[in-house]
Amino acid sequence: MPKEETKKLRPNWKKRSFIVGALILLVWFFTLWSFLWGPDWINVGNRGTFGDMFGGLTSLFSGFAFAGIVISIFMQREELELTRETLEDQRQELELTRTTLEAQKAEMVQQNQTLGRQQFENTFYQLLAYFNTYIGEIKVGRHEGRINFTIWMNDIVQKWRQIRQNAGDQLSRESKAILETKLTELEIAKQFSDWFYEGSPSFHPNGSLFSKAPDGIHTYFRMLFNIFIYVSESDLTDGQKQFYIGIVRAQISDSELFMIFYYCLKPEGEQYRQFAEEFRFFKNLNVDNLLPCSGIREKEVNHFTFVDAAAFG
Q: CA–CA separation, 27 vs 136, rounded Å?
């Protein structure tokens, strides 16, 4: 039942007590008046008789006194009830205030998360824009931008095929020894990487295939590495990190993935390989674009086995 209806149904003890008290005072004043200033028909004898009549009313006045006590008890109970209602109202107000504060706190947390996400995205897209701008400014001869990576990859594949065709005559003794021994895949990967980037004679005496890479390729790797670090060290969830790296991966060409894959085989590319595995960066890599290794002496190696399968999604 609503509080307003409950209050309407409660007896008005204050009004009733006032009426009872007024009746008692009226009777008392009437008695005093009759003894002091009463009319002549009320003589002393009659007054005695009249007084004896009041003796019988003693129990009545005692009842009035008891009624007053009962009324006071009910009044106190009503006051206690009102006090409890007041305390309950205060408790509800405090609960409402606490709920409001919790809602405000949750809203502030959400706002901070949104602000942090916006700040992250601003920096992320700026880094990505700088990265793409830098790629667009790479110029080799008449070619600009990502086309240079495609030309470079095609040159590498063509030269590698020539090496495989002439492996019996052109490979050094050291190369033959390496290919014919039972090296682990990681050891072969390091040998291949040294030759691929640094021109080690372990695989071919004519030097590194990396010598034909576009100028500024090291800056390219550093800029992409900074994007990886920024996303990896952020407070984002794993799913959110995968989302943003997916944006980066969507803008990487096949020839760039080719180059990044082989860079992961270098000793200094160890962290690159870890990021590739963390972000499944080679998910879209066409392994058919990798350099074929079968047919070189008795050793058959698939290059994609040099990197953990997690990197391929």
A: 112
Residue 151 and residue 140 in contact, taking contact as beta carbons nearer than 8 Å:
yes
What average pLDDT score do residues 8-27 get?
Answer: 66
Task: State the pTM of this model.
Answer: 0.59
Angstrom distance (rounded) from CA 193 to CA 264: 9
Query: Using one digit for the tens of pLDDT, what is the confidence trace for 59-69?
Result: 556 766 777 78
For position 44, what pLDDT does the model report? 52
Distance, in Å, from the CA atom of 40 to the CA atom of 254, rounded to the nearest integer, reads 132
Q: What is the Cα–Cα distance from 128 to 301, expressed in whole angstroms?
A: 35
Phi, psi of 143 (to 5 degrees): -100, 140
What is the DSSP track for 177-204? HHHHS---HHHHHHHHHHHHHH--TTT-
Cβ contacts of 137 within 8 Å, gap of 6 or more: 144, 145
Contact (Cβ atoms closer than 8 angstroms) between residue 120 and residue 236: yes
Q: Are 35 and 47 in contact (CB under 8 A)?
A: yes
Distances 27 to 145, 165, 230, 302 between C-alpha atoms, Å: 115, 136, 96, 120
Nearest to 140 by CA among 79, 212, 208: 212
Q: Are 281 and 310 in contact (CB under 8 A)?
A: no
List Cα–Cα distances, 311 to 1, 162, 223, 254, 283, in angstroms. 67, 30, 20, 15, 7
Helix (H) or strand (E) holding 144: strand 143-144
Residue type, 57: L
- What pLDDT is stored for residue 206 in this prediction? 43
> DSSP characters for 209-263?
GGGGSPTTHHHHHHHHHHHHHHHHTSS--HHHHHHHHHHHHHT--HHHHHHHHHH
Q: What's residue 168's pLDDT?
A: 46
* More confident of the two residues 167 and 303: 303
